[in-house]
């Protein structure tokens, strides 16, 4: 059994969205970071850094007798893709998926979220990314997968976090965002409910 620990405004929405899209059964435990539930002793025993998300796979028992515990959204996505889905079938696909996950969690997230990088790096990366993505063409292989989940989730954050940013120069990115926010599994993972409800 898979258990995902998450919370509001955490990257737990990425593995949750992935599991919803792939119809992977999981339990969700949401912690309230405002009340420091992620810093309580019982959770620190799971992840000593107190960060979310964390995935526990009770079907895998480690040498110490405890179930497998993973933190970091990229590591969780890669694990789910390898163990619970069919979008990583070759060494090449694993390598490319890992590449995109690391790009998202380092290069892209820094360009988006660190103000000193946003002005210089953001436009350059967005121009390059706009040429890389296509709505109906997965980044890796021929199935929507972990790489698409990570990239698309970050792009969909843009209008929420930076509504003043002009996305007109990036038509492929705009189209991707519009497509993503209509996906029922994405809306469920984000807690938005039905399509007619505004995010």
Key features?
49% helix, four-stranded mixed β-sheet, Glutaredoxin, Glutathione S-transferase Yfyf (Class Pi), Chain A, domain 2, alpha+beta, 199 residues
Question: In words, what does this structure look like?
Answer:
With 199 residues, this protein is α+β, with helices and mostly antiparallel strands. Helix content is 49%, strand content 11%. The protein has 2 domains: 2-83, Glutaredoxin (3-Layer(aba) Sandwich); 91-187, Glutathione S-transferase Yfyf (Class Pi), Chain A, domain 2, CATH 1.20.1050.10. It is built from 8 helices and 4 strands. A 4-stranded mixed beta sheet has the order 2-1-3-4. Strand 3 (54-61) and strand 4 form a beta hairpin. The two termini are 30 Å apart.
Q: Flag low-confidence runs.
A: 194-199
Q: Mind telling me the CATH class of the largest domain?
A: Mainly Alpha
Strand order of the largest sheet: 2-1-3-4
How would you characterize the largest beta sheet?
4 strands, mixed
CATH architecture level-2 label of the largest domain: Up-down Bundle
Sheet/helix structural class: alpha+beta
The amount of beta strand, in percent, is 5-15%
Write down the CATH topology of the largest domain.
Glutathione S-transferase Yfyf (Class Pi), Chain A, domain 2
SS field, number of helical segments: 8
Mean pLDDT: 92
């Amino acid at each position: 059994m898979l258990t995902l620990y998450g919370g509001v405004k955490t990257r737990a929405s990425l593995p949750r969205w992935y599991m919803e899209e792939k119809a992977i059964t999981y339990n969700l435990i949401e912690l309230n970071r405002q009340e420091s539930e992620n810093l309580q002793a019982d959770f620190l025993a799971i992840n000593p850094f107190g960060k979310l998300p964390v995935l526990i796979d009770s079907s895998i028992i480690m040498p110490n007798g405890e179930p497998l515990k993973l933190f970091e959204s990229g590591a969780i996505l890669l694990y789910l893709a390898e163990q619970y889905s069919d979008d990583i079938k070759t060494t090449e696909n694993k390598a490319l998926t890992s590449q995109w996950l690391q790009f998202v969690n380092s290069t892209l997230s820094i360009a988006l979220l660190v103000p000193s990088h946003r002005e210089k790096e953001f436009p350059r990366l967005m121009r390059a990314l706009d040429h890389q993505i296509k709505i109906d063409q997965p980044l890796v292989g021929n199935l929507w997968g972990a790489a698409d989940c990570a990239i698309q989730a970050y792009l969909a954050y843009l209008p929420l976090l930076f509504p003043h940013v002009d996305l007109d120069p990036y038509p492929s990115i705009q189209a991707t965002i519009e497509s993503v926010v209509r996906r029922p599994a994405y809306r469920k993972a984000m807690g938005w409910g039905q399509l007619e409800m505004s995010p």
